[in-house]
Amino acid sequence: MDAQFWDEMYRSRDQVFSGDPNGVLVTEVTDLPPGQALDVGCGEGGDALWLALHGWQVTAVDISATALQRAATAAAAADVEGRVAWTRADLNITPPPADAFDLVSVQYFPLALQPDHTALRGLLNAVAPGGTLLFASHDLADLSPRPEQGFDPGDYYQPGDIAGLLDRDWTVLINETRPRTAPAPAGTHHTHDTVLRAQRLR
């Protein structure tokens, strides 16, 4: 699923997502003090805009130029342009800056398993000491392979996989499956989320 795939997916509809922030993000971040946030796979910007409106300075990254253009338009309408930096990048190739973010939010982002965990370690390294990693995915029980799109859910990291890779520099605060707090995306049957929230100690 490269940049062309995602651009074509976004261009296939005038709006792919609701524009609302993800429920896991709202639940887990509301009580955190605002700081620097990295929104991984920001899409059309719902999460990034919510973070910006709640005082965060956001670096919002996506591989799709189409998604980023829509997100920037939404940011202008919400008057938070100065609080969000929209960045086109493939995090499998270009890691974010290390020790830079008080929050790294990964919401339903298809992060492919790698033998050396290069992309994942780039995201973990991006969390500043004292900062939070928040990783949410659809429950595997709600996902089915889609061979026609080359998608197999077993090819991607799940929150539990990541929890098992964290060392003593981290403390796991939440590692669980829970019912969704928001309606499932149109055409899907997602009923549960798997959620990892961890804090980097040093």
Automatic annotation (TrEMBL):
Under Pfam families, the record lists: Methyltransf_25
Source taxon at top rank: Bacteria
Task: Supply the alphabetized keyword list.
Answer: Methyltransferase, S-adenosyl-L-methionine, Transferase
Molecular function via GO:
methyltransferase activity
User: Which CDD domains does the UniProt record give?
Assistant: AdoMet_MTases (cd02440)
GO biological process annotation, one example:
methylation
Write down the SUPFAM superfamilies for this protein, in alphabetical order: S-adenosyl-L-methionine-dependent methyltransferases
Q: Where is the Methyltransferase domain?
A: 38-131
- Record's protein name: Class I SAM-dependent methyltransferase
